[in-house]
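Everyone, carefully examine this protein record:
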Amino acid sequence: MAKHTAASVETSLPKAQSGYKERASAVKAAHDATKQAIKADPMTSDLAKKDKLEALAKNTRVKLDAIKDEQVTYEKGLRDTIERELRGNQPADANSVLLRRDAADRVRKITDKQEAMDILQDALANSDESMAHAIGTRARNAAWLDVAEAYQAAYPATADSAAALAYVEANTSGAAYNLSNQITYSAPLD
């Protein structure tokens, strides 16, 4: 499978998100049409109409929640895949895992961008890939752009994955994303 690039993600992610939103809109439109049909039925008592409307509301909620869960699963899967591409193939032997864990623990204690840059330069000079990858990840998460760029310069194969991951994170989090999802997956008004 080909690596994800920023260009491919910029095409596929909005298309997928739009598809989920269109499906949610279709569910809401079907809800409205069914609700109008229930209300207009002269052969059904008010109590029966109330029961049917409650069942319809529950059914619609279940459908909207299912679509939202699919979207969340897709976005998480995409993010996880790109993060694996960014890290590359890593040995799974006990010593390698221990080195990565130790590097991650040390990097978590770094609070200053300049300290991170100094340690990255040391890691690159000493060919310590575990430490360099840990600092690259921390720099990306902490928005230390200079450090992240230095890491990407040292590992140019990660540049596309890093750009793709940045795009995914920017478009699957934040206030605008949350508001959009709340509106999309809210229960239809009665």
